[in-house]
Amino acid sequence: MSLGPDDVKSIAHLARLEIDEKNIEEYANSLSSILDLVEEMNAVDTAGIKPMAHPMNVSQRLRADEVLEVNQREIFQKIAPKVKDGLYLVPQVIE
Amino acid sequence: MEWETVIGLEIHTQLRTKSKIFSSASTAFGAEPNTQACAVDLGLPGVLPVVNAEAIRMATKFGLATGSAICKHSVFARKNYFYPDSPKGYQISQMELPIVGEGAIDIELEDGTKKTIGITRAHLEEDAGKSLHEDYQGMTGIDLNRAGTPLLEIVSEPDMRSAKEAVAYMKKIHSLVQYIEISDGNMAESSFRCDANVSVRPKGQKEYGTRAELKNINSFRFVERAINLEIERQIDVIEDGGKVVQETRLYDADKHETRSMRSKEEANDYRYFPDPDLLPVVFDDAYIEEIRKTLPELPDEKTARFVSDLGLSEYDAGILTASRELADFFEAVIGQSVDAKLTANWIIGDVSARLNKEDLTIAECPVSSKLLAGMLKRIEDNTISGKIAKDVFNGMWNGEGDADTVIDKKGLKQITDDSAIEAIIDEVIANSPDQLEQYRSGKDKLFGYFVGQVMKASQGKANPAQVNQMLKDKLS
After folding, report:
1. Is residue B245 within 8 angstroms of chain A, CB to CB?
2. Rounded CA separation B211/B221 (Å)
3. Do B24 and A67 make contact, defined as CB atoms within 8 angstroms?
4. Domain span at residue B449?
5. Same domain (yes/no): B198, B164
6. What is the number of structural domains in chain B?
7. Which tens digits make up the pLDDT trace of B128-180?
């Protein structure tokens, strides 16, 4: 399966990655070769094998419903570019 | 052309856990911004989500209450999108293996008939934070306290055919999640909100029309209005020769319109995949049976019991069981050996009317179940008439004490002594010679006049049944 330049652009846009026009062909080739590998694995007969959601065959440990976190806003907000009235400020989001 | 509407709802109900679904931060409402957003909620590097056992239990409980399939091996997935109220760049949700599978719930329509609405699935996910668009000079303020709050998203089949059916379904789910104590259902705090998928098609056509999704509606009234507006809009578009496009629309209550947010196929490509930070949630039948034991009597079961055991009408039983608090109040009153029908009439009538007027819930009712029972007993033993009881009820509402105290203080005790009533009747008859003559010459309607006069003369305290009987004897 091979990806074209438009696929690469659209994937980059969804991931909010800025990419250089001159690298697109290379990315297309690399990504396509990953898909080729998947294609190759698809040829293996997996009939009757249950798909796994995780490489380790173990299940999730659950946590008791307790509030253990304390307010650390001041520490967290030290690394934020901009805050006001306890809020994180971000470039305006227009719906 | 005749059109048919097709509606499916996605209801987001906030689970009433103390801590978040993947972190130990508090979910309490109304805290100072970002004081309940910990490193996990902020999506800082190196953190790991750990699933809250209570969220799993509550979701399972919902599945059991709706007779749904429970998935004993469910998987969390990442739903990828960028928005500043979701700092990780993805929302942890469930895609292919949700915890609750297919089920169904019955709704009652206005004409009294029942309709079964299919539940496609219900999955667990985390809520996003809140964006504040005003007041920050060209910037958006983000409060992440709500980020990571557990939500159960309940997805219905496209089984509803009108806005009214959608509202009935939403109310039913709203009542259920409170009955089984998995959500406080507080719509003002956004603990219960829905997205509506709406489409229209020519009546008789099998294929669905193209749907639009109405986002984030948080009141029953708005759901009905928004859906009806959208139906009109879609029919107009088609009748003008246009095509409905698949998109997300926002209902604006102030302008009373729905408007496009963004075109769905373009912007939304969520690229779901299993979250590698989380393992599958696995449990056995024993766990499910433990939870089944904690299920209370459900609204439909309660309604059926009120009808069969207490002799209430289906309609009255439906009103009383619509909320668990109201049903509990009713049962507390009849638990003090008061007649069920009398109690139902009072709660549905005077009590509810007064609560509505003062904008109070049954939990805030100043007249406790004990006080109300005390008063109803005085109606039953003929100490007061139903009419006088309204005064007694007002007295209790205003904190003047229990029924006996109010009756005593205001001298409201009913007159049941035959000779006392007879004396009043004789006086009324003596003072109304003209009416008496007309009545005796065949003007039967004047009987009501005499009853009225006697009641008036007794200040409403004479027992109406006795007055009727004795007047009949006297006048004949």
Report:
1. no
2. 21
3. yes
4. 418-475
5. yes
6. 3
7. 999 988 777 889 999 999 999 999 999 999 999 999 999 999 999 999 999 99
